[in-house]
Amino acid sequence: MKRVWFGIFCLILIWPVMGNTGPVMDLDQLHKYVNKKIKRNEAVLQIKSKTIGDEGAIFLANSPLLQKVRKLVLNDTGITDTGIRALSKSAFLGNLQILDLGHNQIRDRGVQALAQATSLPRLENLSLYRNDISDDGAIALAHSKTLVRLKSLNLSFNHVGDSGAFSITYSLNLPNLEKLDMAENLLTQDGKDACLRFNFRQQFKKLHRKGALKNLEGYFIGDQGVLALLETPFVSQITELNLTQNNLSDAAVQLIFSSKKLLNLKSLNLAKNHITSHGALIITQSGQLKNLRELILNYNFIGDEGAEALANSFYLSKLKVLSLEENPISSIGEWKLKKSNTLKNLIQPIFGFH
After folding, report:
1. CA–CA distance from 220 to each of 195, 198, 279, 309 (Å)?
2. Which pLDDT does position 22 carry in this prediction?
């Protein structure tokens, strides 16, 4: 009985480190399996939850059967860095576009081999989900000079920290990267915000291509979204920007009115956000947006102090439209706006205080 309990105890100890519980395939079985799959579809090879290990990976790397494969899935197959290095040097994966290496035992050295691989010129989608990758691996991918076609990268459930996240999200070597998944890593809020901004930038790129970037009403991008917008190279081209209902605070106002990328902006709509009198004060102290002619601040939280600051701002003297409808401004604040010596060019002042 003691021997039985000892055996169970040993099994419990080794269970967490067992990376793969699927059936083990020897090379002969693997060859037959691959041959069968390729005959059915020469463009796709999927091996899931079957232990082929590094020997199997090396076999695949040296197999001419994979010459026309565009999608290779080796998910939960017991591969380590040794197998990945072999795949990275394969002479038969030149047509590969999708590579799924999720749920294996790949570490940074394996990822570094992938990042330096010259044998994967067409690779567009790479999944390294649930491996053992840290910042070094992520940074290697960010610095890769060969994965220039990569569009999608999955690094979720690894051990990547903020430095890895920043390297990937601001990489100049991955110009086509559109989708990035870094869920369940070792990211602080800074790292998560960097990933959030990356996703926003991809969204803004699509809108820019459609000529729809000027209208972001109801996108709820928040302050981080504004920062991401200002990080895009094409934001300086817009002359109108509608940021109505985007959950923006005074911090977003600070970003906008201190940016040198919005010098061509003529119309700005910040209605239905969370801008206070402090935000209004920021607006009045900035001289960056010299071409601004229309400013909409409806449905915010600007009080008399903000109204007085707006009324006395020299930098807003060229405004033709100023709208402050539905802000908590009293008759005193309204009077100061109407009697302003600087807001003389207003054609359509709307101070509708209800």
Report:
1. 16, 16, 18, 27
2. 78
Please say whether the structural domain 18-187 has been given the CATH code 3.80.10.10: yes
Residue in this structure with the two tokens 């990758």, named with its chain if needed: 133
The yes-or-no verdict on residue 16 having pLDDT over 50 is no
Alpha-carbon dihedral 150, 154, 158, 160, rounded to 10 degrees: 50
Q: How confident is the model at residue 265 (pLDDT cuts 50, 70, 90)?
A: very high
In one-letter notation, the amino acid at residue 314 is F
**81-88 vs 108-116: helix axis angle to the nearest 10?**
0
Domain 211-350 has CATH 3.80.10.10: yes
Could you tell me the two tokens for 138?
């992520």
Task: Tell me which DSSP letter residue 301 carries.
Answer: B
What separation in angstroms does the CA of 19 have from each of 1, 283, 327? 29, 57, 59
Where exactly does CATH 3.80.10.10 map onto the chain? Answer: 18-187, 211-350
pLDDT tens per residue across span 133-155? 999 999 999 999 999 999 999 99
Strands (E), the chain: 44-48, 71-75, 98-100, 125-127, 152-154, 179-181, 240-242, 267-269, 294-296, 321-323, 348-350
Neighbours of 14 (CB within 10 A): 8
Residues 6+ apart with CB under 8 A from 130: 102, 103, 156, 157, 158
Whole-angstrom distance, CA of residue 143 vs CA of residue 246:
34
